[in-house]
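User: For my dataset I need records formatted as: sequence, then structure tokens, nothing else. Please produce one.
Assistant:
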Amino acid sequence: MAKIIKAERSSLPRTVPRLLQILFVLLRHNFLGALRGRKHLPQPKEVRETFEELGLIFLKFGQVLALRRDLLPDNYIAELELLHDEVPGLHIDAVRATIEEELRAPMSALFSRFNKTPLAAATIAQVHEATTIDGRHVAVKVQRTGLDTVIATDVAVLNFLVVLAEKLFPSLRALELPLAVSEFEISLNRETDFGREGRSIVLFRAALIDDPDVWVPDVLAEYSGRTVLTMEFSAGERIDLYARSHPETMPHAISTLVRLMLQSIFESGVFHADPHPGNVFVMPDGRLSLLDFGMTGDLDETMRESLVLLLEAVVKHDARGVKEAYLEMATASEKVNRASLLLDIKAVLYEIHRSDLTQVSIGTAFDSLVRAGSKNGVHNPSEFFLLTRAFVILESMIRQLDPHHNYIESFRVEIKRLTAQQFSVARIEEKTIKLGRDSERLIGDAPADIRRALRRVASGQLGQLQLPALEALGGRISRNLESLNGAIAAAALVIGGAMLVSNPLASWHSELGEYMIIGGVIGALVIYIGALRRDRGRR
């Protein structure tokens, strides 16, 4: 994992000169005029130029803010989206020093050829074309030197400025800017962790190894480390350039990109959050090649399942379904105005379905949902912003490749496939088995946990209570857990049977579903009767 100095550990002598430098730049661009009120806020162009002048970390922070449409007005978002991270390349001596320190070998022992001119140079790293000593054609990604210290210092300064801004303008507290800075620091740590990026590439490659339409370059582990990442070289052409000379191939390429995005989100849970044309190449044999996995998102199984339901509800124009699935994914506080949230979601869906299908944007729908949630007291998870970013960038690329492509139809087809897979017999069986195992583990562990707690109570550690009464209580809890286990199993049978009956994939599925429903109902009745008999016995 990349060695990052935490912002709070950045020393005062290191932070103060940088803080003074930043305050001088802010003063020159009229930021401090905001102290006199909203009418004196700097213009969007000045904000962008300020971020560019302040350097690497502030430039990246501006790019992150460009995703937060729930925080900033549209004119500021539009200007921040113009921020780019193309910077002058490092001198070859600095590149050589980083590689030799990381890989503990001289360059001449590692590469027979190393192009001194980088293929691309950005704020975090730059990429060079090379040939390994054993003849493999590779791309070498080298991290900029001193990045950890720069990140720690500038993030510490950002935290100070945010706290100061909230004291001067208490209304800013509603924007949760300290949380945005914290998530930004986490994002930077991810992006500078080349070990994590290498693992993401391995996961993507394993998931897509049998896909005839996609190629992901392999990682050369022996040529990679914390600050150096070496991969197979992609000999293809940027997809936007390829589209100009081969427009007839774009419908299939676009369908592949949509399928790839949704498959990575819902099946593996790891998705590429920066799918712009510079990261998608077309190989000489027609396959798509994905590059640069520095910015990826991770979704756990629960969030993936909720996301399937959310997208299906968006396609079906089901506002209540969207609201419930959204609140399962996000953190809803007690202050959430659910009625207002539902009205805002209905407005979002209305705008989607009144538009021409070729102009519908899932990224915009996510963006509107994020805004509606923030407005009504929902705290959106950081992965949600990455997801929004991924869809917005993907859709922008699709419009560029083929302005008349019916993107939503490709999306609908893939969502239908994923929904069918979600409720397949194999999936239901897998969930039922997992539910049974979890319940069995709970039942098995509960009596021992209760006995341990009772022994601590009896020894006086938790107060003086009579042991026989507590043992009786433990017995009742154990019996109730057994009943709960049976009830869960019965409910699983009924739910699984209902799914099979309502959406049969084969003729025998419906019949199996009916038997499962009958079995679940009988099981529930047996549990209920047993509970009644135990209750009478106690009385």
